[in-house]
Write a structure and sequence with these properties.
The complex is a heterodimer of chains A (352) and B (289). By secondary structure, chain A is α+β, with helices and mostly antiparallel strands. Chain A is 24% helix and 34% strand. Chain A has a six-stranded mixed beta sheet with strand order 6-7-8-3-9-10, with helices on both faces. A five-stranded antiparallel beta sheet of chain A has the order 13-12-11-14-20, with no helix packed on it. A two-stranded antiparallel sheet of chain B has the order 1-2. The longest helix of chain B is centred in the middle third of the chain and has 32 residues. Chain B has 13 helices and two strands, in the order αααββαααααααααα.
């Protein structure tokens, strides 16, 4: 299947002699899917979006839209919709006229453009606010109108540049549901920029992780969490456990002990990675030590809302483990930790 | 210690202290004293602006006003008739056309210069800024006398030369007004419009012009004032051929016994700027909320 949007060795230098903002980025986004570009500030994720939209010219490489090279095509000729973090609704136009803007730019009359805009306003549940000035809208409503305006242009691909990051948690959740609803109805190809891995995992089918202008990994949400390609990816995905050791014949030897890992894990120095949320945790040392079961003791507990995370000392290593809500333990208590082989991953110690 | 209900009652009976921002105490609520102060200040300012116009208004309708009478000793429209006879209506038209021409050209050039300075397209931006600001800093006599010699040698028609010089005089006002506006202008609107399929021309007419309209109006107003009220440039570069309201007013003011006609012309000179100011104040002169 031809990718809806494909980047081939895309490089971007904003200032000569400065490090590249993007360096040899290759990315394929399949039609009808949602891909999240995830990375810290300055990683180049918004630059990728602006290059796809045509608002920045790449210093090198190609941008393909449905197999067609659009690298030097003007933004208005690309048929690519873009919603920014700020809604950027045109303040001199009413809500419906904002949504009708693309049709007006295409030469349609005001009457027809407004008629065609109404279903999109309805889609974002704001059909009754069409005549209002945009200044009277709330932040959430503004972002809905911005989404409707971009969709009304019937873009081949919809680009979302951190569109929900300025909204509070409740509004953000509503917008995630709205986006899911729009995806069910229109099946657009979406590329979303975010620095929030939870948001990326919530709305996207696949995540592309960027750091320092380089694409580190582009994979499904599950694989990024449980099979990160490098320590950097694991860290960016919120990983907490990095155990240095040596792998020999599918067994990782470290301060934790000898842990059976995937047989395809390369022999030699390697870092064992596993998610703190995926560990099996039970109180006491009652269960026998079989397989990848370890005994340890709690040296500290931190809390985030209802969630509790324990620092568990096992042999010579400290690991992080999320505690089940019903588990009644406190600092100094003994704990049994299970490491199912499906959650274990070893990356070379030299990987970034 | 046991706390009884009786002990709590007096504490609850104390009315809670209200702070700015509490319900019923908006931060912007006027207090009587400050409101009176503001009203007083407005009255004083209005008096400050209106006071010089009062003798003009009285003189405009005075056929005779002998000292020491506090009001005209004979009311009438001799001044108005004399102003019309002296060519006041034609001068009014010429001044208006001059103001409009200067406003149109200086606003256009100012907008281009401002955009170039803000976007970093202008070569040597600091030097360009100084040059654009120079007409305000240099005494008009020094520059205009020299410029006039060049215009005469180059055989530039006096009207064209006059407009050219007045545009240069107005440019600092338009450029710096619009530079501030362009610096605050969010290019994201234009980028968004382009991704929605708008060409660069459509972005200019449908996004940039409407969003910049209040600033363009402010700049055009200032440039209009330069053309409308100019005396010295019109006198020197125009060579006395172009009779505008300031020229005819100054000419009559130099004579004796023309108080009434001078008052009529002076009052007429005030009307267009004040009318424009009121129109702009009603239509987004201060920009959108």
């Amino acid at each position: 299947m031809t990718a809806a949007i494909a980047l081939r060795e895309v490089t971007k230098h904003f200032v000569d002699r400065q490090p590249a903002a993007l360096l040899g980025v290759n990315l394929d986004v399949l039609p009808g899917t949602c891909t999240a570009l995830l990375g810290p500030s300055g990683s180049g994720k918004s630059t990728v979006l602006r290059i796809i939209a045509g608002l920045e010219n790449p210093s090198g490489g190609q941008v393909l839209l449905n197999g067609r090279d659009i690298t030097s095509v003007l933004p208005e000729k690309r048929n690519v919709g873009l919603v920014f973090q700020r809604p950027l609704l045109f303040p001199h136009l009413s809500v419906v006229d904002n949504v009708a803007f693309a049709d007006r730019a295409a030469g349609r009359s005001w009457r027809i453009a407004r008629e065609r805009a109404l279903p999109y306003l309805d889609m974002v549940q704001l059909a009754d606010l069409g005549r209002q000035r945009v200044g009277s809208l709330s932040g959430g409503q503004e972002q809905r109108v911005a989404l409707a305006r971009a969709l009304a242009a019937q873009p081949t691909i919809l680009l979302l540049d951190e569109p929900f990051s300025a909204l509070d948690a409740e509004l953000r959740h509503e917008m995630h549901e709205l986006l899911a609803d729009i995806r069910r109805q229109l099946a657009p190809t979406v590329v979303l920029v975010t620095h929030d891995r939870d948001e990326a995992a919530t709305v996207a089918d696949r995540i592309a992780v960027l750091e320092n202008g380089q694409l580190l990994q582009h994979d499904t949400v599950d694989r990024l969490y449980h099979r990160p390609a490098s320590i950097a990816v694991a860290r960016l995905m919120g990983g907490e456990n990095f155990i240095n050791g040596v792998t020999v014949g599918g067994v990782h030897h470290s301060g934790l002990g000898s842990i059976s890992v995937d047989e395809s894990a390369p022999d030699g120095p390697g870092v064992l990675l596993f998610r703190h949320e995926s560990l099996g945790v039970s109180a006491g040392h009652l269960l026998p030590l079989t397989g990848n079961r370890l005994h340890g003791s709690i040296t500290g507990i931190s809390r985030t809302g209802l969630r509790r995370r324990a620092t568990v000392r096992i042999n010579d290593e400290d690991i992080q483990a999320e505690l089940p809500a019903t588990l009644d333990v406190s600092g100094g208590d003994q704990l049994t930790v299970d490491l199912p082989s499906g959650i274990l991953c070893v990356v070379p110690a030299t990987s970034r | 210690m046991t706390i009884t209900t009786r002990e709590l009652v007096p504490a609850l009976a104390i009315p809670p202290r209200r702070l700015p921002g509490d319900p019923g105490r908006p931060l912007t609520a006027s207090r009587t004293g400050s409101r009176l102060g503001r009203v007083g200040l407005v009255v004083l300012l209005l008096g400050w602006f209106a006071l010089p116009l009062l003798p003009l208004a009285l003189w405009a309708f005075a056929n005779q006003w002998s000292y020491p009478s506090p009001t005209p000793t004979e009311w009438g429209t001799d001044g108005l008739n004399s102003a019309i006879t002296a060519g006041g209506i034609a001068a009014f038209g010429r001044s208006a056309l001059l103001g409009v021409a200067v406003a149109a050209i200086a606003t256009l050039i100012g907008a281009v210069a401002a955009r170039a300075l803000v976007a970093g397209w202008a070569p040597f931006p600091r030097l360009t800024t100084v040059l654009l600001f120079a007409p305000v800093a240099i005494p008009p006599f020094a520059s205009i006398l020299g410029t006039n010699v060049i215009l005469l040698r180059a055989q530039v028609p006096s009207l064209l030369g006059l407009v050219m010089v007045l545009v240069v005089v107005a440019l600092p006002y338009t450029t710096f007004t619009l530079r501030a506006a362009y610096a605050a202008h969010d290019m994201g609107y234009e980028e968004e419009a382009r991704t929605l399929g708008a060409s660069q021309a459509q972005v200019f007419w449908r996004i940039q012009i409407p969003l910049m309209a209040p600033a363009l109006a402010r700049a055009a107003f200032l440039a209009f004032l330069v053309g409308w009220s100019d005396y010295i440039v019109t006198l020197i570069v125009g060579g006395g051929q172009l009779v505008t309201v300031p020229i005819i007013t100054a000419s009559l003011a130099a004579g004796v016994g023309n108080d009434s006609v001078v008052a009529v012309l002076s009052l007429a000179a005030v009307i267009p700027p004040v009318a424009l100011l009121m129109v702009l104040a009603q239509n987004g002169f201060r920009g959108r909320p």
